[in-house]
């Protein structure tokens, strides 16, 4: 159950290593040294005429000697890669059963997957152009260095402004998946500058004159990777997106999680748009400035487009992710404070920054009702970051979802003070209000790890004929939620899946705002497991508000020999995490777990929200999209 935090820690370590290597390698002069001849071709694929580049830092290393850390005797090639493995492997191939399992890697699979990522980045995404002599990939093979170590190493960049490379450990290659796709993505990002010069390819920060860090490397590598592993789009890095989407699109706080704008741009401009942005970048521009220049957009047009993107993200209404994101509709976090005049104002911790957005869920009135949001921009309001109020701007409007999946969008509104209106369509099931930060001048965001100087664009909005959930003064009532989920079977890890709780439905039933529900859990609202005999069991045996269950749906301890599956309730973000005990479940097993929130009203009467999770164990199979 600590898998996510462990994964995120590993990614952070990878980011630090990447930054170190990025600074070292991009500072090197282009080498004028003659490369070594190609190593012996050991791949079953047809040999190519590509050479092996020897980096400046390794010129004194004898690659023909097995005493060297890297040598041809411990290497294998495919059409476009050479893989070296470390001296610690001795005479053993890393795939050999003679190698301790913690160091063992299926190198044929590694090279095959690497070739698939090459094909993606060259032929589909077109980060580089090969075949006409303009790319160094027409001369050299990309390089992979596999270390003999049991820690986490996953870094991609390159050598000497000449060739892309990656450095990995066995742990990051079992199985070969999105991590390697991510690092090879970095290698192709690096290759852009190798081929076009370092005045292209974002070899600079966005803090002015190249200062600071560059979050777009990580954002783009995630997007590159998840094209091959689309099921990961809404998994491990989705929660950080929900925590930070109000911030600037190129903000450091969610650099591993903010790949959604890439999805929007790819649908609007074609899948090669991201590669074009990398290639067209001119020194010190950020990606949004490059995009704006490429497509001839004024700042006003850019803001219009970013509002369109935000409105699509509400229900993931983009071709490539619409189906994948169906279960994540309504997942956007929000934090709105009720003011004395009945208007709502975003909490300073969740106020839209330049290019960021807010998604506010609303009660759904009858079809044909006209709802209104009375909007007022509040630049430099007390408690928010101070900005140049003369450039303040916003975009806002409504988004609706019908029972058949049809999306409806209101007119986009732009006035700093005005009314946004929308007529509720037939069969409307969900309704939201969307606001973007849209100043009349665009400023890049500096990676300075200081959120107190970020541009914020506060506002307030008061609704007519609708309201945020929990503010309509109706009698509280019982409510039930059912989730049919699947989780991968694992013999070694606590694999789990998540389900988003419809906060609008829950808040409407309890007639409490979202934050009040969170605050009352443990006092007026109690959390239980609902066992098959209808017993409410308050014993917590998993993380936070969570329990382990036996095969029959009764609560057991984690240490019990009968523990099979768990379910945990996140009272801050309103989601359920359901998972399995390693090596205690079988493919095809089905389990039912029930939990409940029981709200005791001031009158003493009670209302209950019941959550039923039907969990099916499935065979874990890695699928790579072509």
What do you see in this structure?
With 626 residues, the protein is an alpha+beta fold. Helices cover 22% and strands 23% of the residues. Among the domains are: 194 residues, no CATH class; 140 residues, Immunoglobulin-like (Sandwich), CATH 2.60.40. The protein contains eleven helices and 24 strands. The N terminus and C terminus are likely disordered.
Write the layout of secondary structure elements.
Blueprint lengths: L2 H24 L48 E3 L3 E5 L21 H18 L17 E5 L7 E6 L3 E6 L9 H19 L19 H13 L9 H7 L15 H10 L3 H8 L6 H8 L4 H15 L22 E3 L5 E3 L10 E6 L7 E8 L16 E9 L4 E3 L7 E7 L4 E10 L21 E6 L14 E10 L7 E5 L2 H8 L3 H7 L4 E6 L5 E2 L7 E5 L5 E2 L8 E6 L4 E6 L9 E11 L5 E13 L8
Parallel strand pairs: 2-3, 3-5, 15-24
Antiparallel strand pairs: 1-2, 4-5, 6-7, 8-13, 9-12, 9-14, 10-11, 10-13, 16-22, 17-18, 17-23, 19-20, 19-21, 21-22, 23-24
Helix pairs in contact: 2-3, 3-4
Which terms would index this structure?
Immunoglobulin-like; about 625 residues; single chain; 5-stranded mixed β-sheet; disordered C terminus; 11 helices; disordered N terminus; alpha+beta
Tell me the fraction of residues in β-strands, as a range: 15-25%
Class per helix and strand makeup: alpha+beta
Note the overall shape: globular
Helix content: 10-25%
Q: Note poorly predicted spans.
A: 1-47, 621-626
The count of helical stretches stands at 11
Number of distinct beta strands: 24
Give me the side-by-side strand order of the main sheet.
1-2-3-5-4
Mean pLDDT: 92
How far from one another are the termini?
A: 31 Å
Rounded Rg: 27 Å
């Amino acid at each position: 159950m600590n898998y996510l935090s462990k994964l995120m820690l590993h990614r952070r370590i990878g980011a630090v290593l990447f930054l170190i290597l990025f600074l070292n390698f991009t500072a090197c002069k282009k080498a004028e040294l003659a490369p070594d001849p190609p190593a012996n071709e050991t791949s079953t694929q047809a040999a190519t005429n590509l050479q092996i580049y020897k980096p400046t830092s390794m010129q004194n290393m004898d690659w023909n000697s097995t005493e060297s850390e890297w040598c041809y005797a411990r290497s294998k090639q495919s059409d476009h890669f050479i893989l070296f493995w470390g001296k610690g492997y001795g005479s053993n191939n890393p795939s050999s059963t003679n190698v301790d399992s913690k160091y063992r890697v299926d190198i044929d699979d590694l090279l095959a997957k690497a070739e698939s990522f090459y094909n993606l980045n060259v032929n589909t995404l077109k980060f580089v152009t090969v075949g006409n002599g303009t790319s160094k990939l027409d001369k050299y093979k990309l390089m992979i260095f596999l270390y003999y170590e049991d820690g986490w190493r996953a870094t991609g960049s390159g050598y000497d402004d000449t060739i892309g490379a990656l450095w990995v450990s066995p742990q990051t290659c079992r199985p070969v998946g999105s991590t390697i796709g991510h690092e090879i993505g970095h290698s192709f990002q690096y290759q852009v500058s190798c081929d076009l010069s370092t005045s292209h390819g974002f070899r600079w920060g966005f803090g002015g004159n190249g200062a600071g860090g560059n979050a777009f490397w990580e954002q783009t590598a995630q997007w590159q990777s998840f094209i091959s592993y689309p099921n990961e789009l809404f998994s491990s890095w989705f929660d950080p997106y929900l925590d930070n989407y109000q911030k600037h699109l190129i903000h450091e706080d969610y650099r591993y999680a903010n790949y959604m704008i890439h999805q929007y741009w790819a649908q609007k401009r074609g899948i090669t748009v991201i590669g074009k942005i990398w290639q067209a970048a001119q020194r010190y521009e950020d990606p949004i400035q490059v995009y704006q220049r490429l497509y001839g957009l004024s700042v006003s047009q850019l803001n219009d487009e970013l509002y369109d993107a935000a409105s699509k993200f509400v229900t993931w209404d983009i071709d490539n992710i619409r189906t994948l994101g169906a279960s994540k509709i309504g997942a956007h976090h929000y934090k709105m404070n009720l003011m004395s005049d009945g208007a709502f104002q975003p909490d300073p911790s969740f106020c839209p920054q330049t290019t960021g957005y807010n998604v506010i869920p609303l009660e759904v009135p009858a079809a044909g009702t006209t709802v209104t949001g009375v909007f007022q921009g509040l630049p430099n309001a007390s408690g928010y970051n101070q900005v140049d109020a003369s450039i303040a701007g916003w975009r806002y409007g409504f988004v609706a979802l019908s029972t058949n999946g049809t999306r409806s969008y209101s007119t986009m509104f732009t006035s700093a003070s005005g009314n946004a209106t929308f007529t509720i369509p037939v069969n409307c099931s969900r309704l939201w209000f969307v606001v973007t930060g849209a100043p009349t001048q665009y400023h890049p965001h500096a990676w300075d790890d200081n959120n107190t100087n970020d541009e914020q664009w506060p506002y307030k909005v008061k609704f007519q004929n609708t309201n945020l959930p929990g503010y309509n003064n109706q009698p509280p009532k019982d409510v039930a939620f059912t989730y049919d989920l699947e989780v991968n079977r694992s013999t070694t890890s606590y694999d789990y899946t998540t389900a988003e709780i419809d906060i609008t439905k829950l808040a409407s039933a309890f007639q409490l705002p979202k934050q009040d529900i969170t605050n009352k859990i443990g006092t007026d609202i109690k959390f239980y497991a609902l066992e098959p005999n209808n017993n409410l069991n308050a014993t917590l045996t998993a993380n936070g508000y969570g329990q382990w269950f036996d095969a029959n749906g009764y609560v057991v301890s984690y240490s019990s020999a009968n523990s099979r599956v768990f379910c945990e309730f996140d009272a801050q973000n309103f989601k359920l995490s359901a998972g399995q005990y390693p090596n205690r479940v079988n493919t095809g097993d089905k389990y039912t777990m029930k939990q409940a929130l029981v709200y005791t009203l001031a009158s003493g009467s009670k209302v209950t929200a019941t959550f039923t999770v039907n969990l099916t164990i499935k065979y874990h199979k890695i699928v790579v999209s072509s």
